Every structure is written in C-alpha cells, then in structure tokens.
Amino acid sequence: MTARPLVAVRRVSKSFGTFKALDDVSLDVRAGEVMCLIGASGSGKTTLLRCVNQLTRIDSGGIWLDGELLGLRESGGRLHALSEREVARQRLRTGMVFQRFNLFPHKTALENVTEGPIQVQGRRPAEVRDEAVALLARVGLAAKAGNYPSQLSGGQQQRVAIARALAMKPQLMLFDEPTSALDPELVGEVLAVMRELARSGMTMMVVTHELGFAREVADTVVYMDQGAIVEAGTPAEVLGVPREARTRSFLSAVIG
Amino acid sequence: MTSGRALAEGFPDLTGLPTARRTHWGRWIAAGLILVVLALVGRAFAEGQIEWAYVGRFLTVPVILQGIVNTLVMAVLAMSLGIALGLVVAVMRLSPNPVLKGVAAGYTWLFRGTPLILQLLLWFNLALVFPVIGIPGLWSVKSVEVMTPFLAALLGLGINQGAYTSEVMRAGLLSVDAGQSEAAQAIGMGRLKALYRIVLPQAMRVVLPPLGNEFIGLVKATSLASVIQYPEVLHAAENIYYANSRVIELLIVAGLWYLLVVSALTPLQMLLERRFSRGTARLGR
Question: Cβ–Cβ contacts within 10 Å for residue B97, how many?
Fold first, then answer.
C-alpha cells in the first residue's frame, strides 16, 4: 500500500470544440515528486497543467489535490460545480508559473510578490514584506525588489514570477514551459532556481522542452501525444530506453 | 580608425566640412499668408459691431461666474455618473452571462442612438408620463417636484455619457492581456478583485486619453441643459442678452469661459496619465 498521492488525475478528458485536448488521462504525483511533462505542442501537456489549476474546466473525470476533489462537489448522486469563491480557495494550494511570466507590470518586483499574501490571504503587510524580501533573495534578485517588470530581463522576470507563486506557500508548483519565451542565455538562471526548488522538496509538475533538465531533476517523465499519456517512467526509462515508437521519434526529432 | 583593414583609395575626405542648412521657402510663404489672413480677421473684429468693453465687463459678473460654477459642477457629477455606469456596463458586456451582456448592449444602443437634447427633454418632462413616482403603497412623490432642471440635466447627461464611456472602458479592459487575469486567479484572486487590483489599473493607462476627450465633450454638452432651464454659463449669458441685447458680446463671454475651462483640463489629464503609467518602459523613476 503506497501513500496517498498529492495529485491524482483520474480519467480526465477535455475538448475544445471538436479538438480533443485531453483524452482519458490518469496519473499520480506523489508529495515531493518532480514530474516533467514532455511532448509536441498540442499534445495536451499545458492543458493538463491548466486543468490542475482550474484555469481550464475539465469535461469529465476528476482531479484530486491532497484528497480534495477540485472544482466539483458530489451530492445526491450528481456533480455540482464549485462557486468561484471555493475555486479561488482551492487554487491557493497551487502556485503557477506561466510561459510569458505574466508579472503585474504596474507593480514592482516586491509588490508582485506581496500582492497575493496581503490581498488574498489578508496577512500582515510587514510580515509578508520580510518574507518577500527573503524569497527574492532566494531567487537571486534581492537587489531588484524596487524594479518594475519592464526594467528586468526575461530571466529575472520569470524568477520574480516563481517568487510570487512561492509567496502563497503552495503545496504544489506548476510550471508551464517556464523557459520557452526566454533568450537562450537566460534559460540557465531560471532552471537553476527550479533545480534548487526541487532539491528543497517541493512537489512540481513541469511542462518543458528542456530534456537536460528533465533528465537531471525529474523523478518521473511523462510523454504525451494527442491528448493522451503515451509513456511514463523514470528519466532513464522514458528518455534513455523509450518503449514506444512514438516516444522514440519525438526524442530523435527534439535532439536532432 | 579602421581596425587593421586597408580602405580603398580615391574618395575625398569629408570630415570637418560643415552641413549647410536648407532654406524652406514653402514655410516662409505659408507663414506670411497666414499672418495676412489673421491681420484681416483681427481688423474685421476690431471694426465690427462688437463692444469689447461689454465683453470685459460681463466676463466676471456674479451671474456668469455662478453659471460657470454650475457648468463645472454638472460636468463633474455627470462624468462621475458616466464613468460609474460605463465601468459597470463594460464589465457586464464582457461577462459570460448572456442576460447581462444583452442588457449592456441594449443600454448602449438606446442612449447612443438618440440625440442628447431629446433625452434631456424627456427626463425634464418625465412628469407628463409618470405624474407620481415611488414604490406602490410604501412611498411616493410628485414627479414635478423631484425632476428639477438639475436632476434632469444630471440624469440626461450622465446616462448618455455612460453609454459612450462604457465603450471606452471596454476597449481599455480588452487591451489588458488575458494572462494578467489568469495570473491574478492563480494567486487566488476572485474575478472582481482581479479586475479592481490588476486589470483596471492597467486599463486606465489606455482609457485616460479618450476619457479626457469625453470629459471635454461633456463640459461643452452641459450647454444643452440650458434648454431645460439649468442655470449653466450659456443659460446665464442668454438671460443677460435677453435683457440688454448684447448677444455677440455675451456669447463671446461664454465662449471664453469654455476655452479657459477646457485649457485647464489638459494639464490635469497629464498629471493623471503620469500617475497611471507606473511600470511602463519609459519610466526610470
């Protein structure tokens, strides 16, 4: 008997019009696990991540976070959608990092980090501020606290975005292609922060094209294609000796 | 000079030669013509049937001053109502709820589709349709007593303004990247909080220039309220020239006041724009 997974995805499907973005997907993420999701664009990996954070509503199936069903409530043999307020409460347990950073441009780096804890969690500004300063130091940006996003490089912005998500003290961190919008020379600094975060024991789901990062940091690599999981296992298995022909052709196309 | 690479010979050395300024003949001719026209217009007005002494005398009489104060009060109140309505309607228009969407579209259609002066007259004459207003059985008043020129002007101008402002607001809200509200949701914000804390401050930057335009338009549109006896500055000027027949002089007085007010609004708008441009690229500190 294994421990209850932190994230349990069961038979989840999602369509956009006639396009099936997720097709009967099931997976588990244990607490402390780092899972990298790889696959071509349109394979459903980003949609899966967005469903876990309820930015996208699932059509069928269920996602549980720490034992709590997300976005739905069962009563009287029927499923009812949760109110916006309850969904917002559930989102507090997950932090999300976006491909295009999505920092708030009218707020400084520090204000971006303190916004959630003060405005949403209603915590004391002085205490939040100290924590935010420490978080910015952790991502190597102690000196940039007073800068606006437009005054930061892409790599710095993404590191502030990671600090912003961490400030909510999430149980799970979701990364949606966090380095895809970066200039090549800036990728390393963001991956370094993520590596440190993984080492600290954070549970992470990472959609990425950085196979080197996946090989080095991930506990589990999941390869998706056409909305379904083709293959999942350790990096050595999936990236080293893939069982499926589709995985092999994807990997050879990516590595070139 | 060159980093080790030999240059081809046979080209003259141009360093040190000054660049001559071009003479812009067209500009000189145009400026001269405009000066002649201005001189002619100036002479016409100086020799025309205008008693400039009257203009100076009536510029600051109490009735005119009270009129311009009333104009400003009405413009500010009607704009406030317009912005409040415009924001609510814009948010309704962008909501996924089809009922709210329809109501918002209908409101904009109705109040943009009819002339402002007609709307003012309708509000002022509301008593003809509903002699008594109130909650049946609980409370009621006579419409004639409630619907003063002030209230009719405020409702007419404000509700009409809201229809235009809602479109300006909607443009502003649409200009903010969808990723911003997703990021706000991701840190646990509800829709309204995300709107107020994240999306709206960014939309303001886009909205302010057209909103300034709208406000200037509204300051001048308050003059229409003179037809329903609201004592704004044009109405005051009219009352004076009905008595002394100095029509042009008093219209010039009113015109000068409008120009003054509108001119004062421009620096005010610049201050607001600076306030809401925090974090944009140009800003150093």
Answer: 10
